[in-house]
Amino acid sequence: MGTMARRVALVTPFAWSQPHDVNEHVAGLARELRLRGNDVTVLAPSNRARELAAGRRALATGADAELIALGPAVPISRLSRMGVPVGVRTNLAVALGSGRYDIVHGFEPGLPSLSYLALRDTNALTVATFFSAERLAYPPARTRRERLLGRIDALLATSSSRSASTSSLRLRNGISSCSNGARRSDRCFVRSSRS
């Protein structure tokens, strides 16, 4: 019996144009999911003019793309007071609306970032992966944090210690753990009962 292909958005808060451990994980997961027949788009900031121009074209035409650069990267941290620029938020909303994604997977949503906004605002099934346990306390306001957690259908941790850090979080469908690295990315897919 064959599996049904899914439309998956992988959202990273880190500039795709710069090397980063999270982006390497995202690229490996995207590659493995594509090999399994899924339609995968990476939504990310970038500082490369070519990627930004291609992202604008994809958003304007609604064309499928492996990468949609939503805007220039801005420095972020858990304590940042600077939000995601309005134009980038709009591009994210357009990408989520026109992408018809079955699953939106946000990486490090414990930052004021594209990942946080994508998980909060999408109507698709949601998956969140945390690489850093200290980012689990974002957003700092309890009501906003609960709103985000209420939207997450599956929470993935990249190590058993991070998984233990998430065990106190109340999610609709529980917590799963996955190993870091593309070779094991098939272990990162979780079924959800949310309709």
What would you say about this model in short?
The chain is an alpha/beta fold and 195 residues long. It is 34% helix and 16% strand. The chain has helices spanning 21-35, 49-61, 86-99, 114-121, 142-151, 160-166; strands spanning 7-11, 39-44, 67-69, 103-107, 125-130, 154-157, 175-177.
In words, what does this structure look like?
- This protein has 195 residues and is of the alpha/beta class.
- It has a single domain (9-188), classed as 3-Layer(aba) Sandwich (Rossmann fold).
- It has helices at 21-35, 49-61, 86-99, 114-121, 142-151, 160-166; strands at residues 7-11, 39-44, 67-69, 103-107, 125-130, 154-157, 175-177.
- The chain has a seven-stranded parallel beta sheet, with helices on both faces.
- It is globular, with a radius of gyration of 16 Å.
- The chain starts with 6 loop residues before the first strand and ends in an 18-residue tail after the last strand.
Helix and strand topology:
Blueprint: E1 7-11, H1 21-35, E2 39-44, H2 49-61, E3 67-69, H3 86-99, E4 103-107, H4 114-121, E5 125-130, H5 142-151, E6 154-157, H6 160-166, E7 175-177
Parallel strand pairs: 1-2, 1-4, 2-3, 4-5, 5-6, 6-7
Helix pairs in contact: 3-4
